[in-house]
């Protein structure tokens, strides 16, 4: 079936807006203390059943990552963050929303899908303002890191897109779980590395380590909305 809408591409010929465009608008933000090498659940936002997409402000000392959210009676009410040190995590949430219908006497740009539903309205505010998608390779070992040049590590917020999970068997009874985290080393540099966030009893034979990944990886950099 013929599709409808306006296709807008950037200078790399990647689609920015088309009839399948997803609108992510600002939902909430906050901060909280996180412990070292464990998963910390933080509150501070209104619980919701809608899917959330969260970003972190980079710490200069400790690597962090967002593991997910706690679901209670069908609503997300806690964000789960891990860190390789004791730190304060600053997070920002976005949620997919339905574009509004503009007033009849207004001006702007509308994009509709084949069902004549509005998928983009230029009058809506609070969208996620993406600065860049920074591609990177997975660090080869749990001690390895990857540096990425970014636009503004001091003020922008970041999310690692793509999942990587590491497992290290210390002995026949102890294992460590890892995931990729990020911190800043300067105002224009972000460092990706493994964060150990769980140690637990484990019943197996032998020891060793391994990592599973879902590549390619991108570090998404966004700007904070001006009104926040």
Question: Can you give me a brief rundown of this structure?
Answer:
With 228 residues, the protein is an all-beta fold. Helices cover 0% and strands 55% of the residues.
Structural class computed from helices and strand pairing: mainly beta
Instruction: Please state the CA-atom Rg, rounded to the nearest Å.
Output: 20 Å
Total DSSP E strands: 18
Unreliable stretches (pLDDT < 50, length at least 5) are none
Question: In DSSP terms, counting alpha (H) and pi (I) runs of 4 or more, how many helices?
Answer: 0
- Element-by-element helix/strand order: EEEEEEEEEEEEEEEEEE
Q: In percent terms, what proportion of residues is strand?
A: over 45%
Give the neighbour order of strands across the main sheet.
3-8-5-13-18-11
Q: Report the end-to-end length measured between terminal Cα atoms.
A: 42 Å
**What kind of assembly state do the chains in view correspond to?**
single chain
Average pLDDT: 82
The dominant shape is globular
Amount of helix: under 10%
Domain count:
2
Largest sheet: 6 strands, antiparallel
Describe the structure.
This protein is an all-beta fold and 228 residues long. The protein folds into two domains: 8-129, no CATH class; 138-223, no CATH class. 0% of the residues lie in helices and 55% in strands. It has strands spanning 8-9, 15-17, 24-34, 38-42, 52-57, 64-72, 75-83, 87-96, 110-112, 118-121, 129-136, 145-149, 157-161, 164-169, 174-186, 189-201, 208-213, 217-223. The strands form five sheets. Strands 3-8-5-13-18-11 form a six-stranded antiparallel beta sheet, with no helix packed on it. A five-stranded antiparallel beta sheet has the order 12-16-15-14-17, with no helix packed on it.
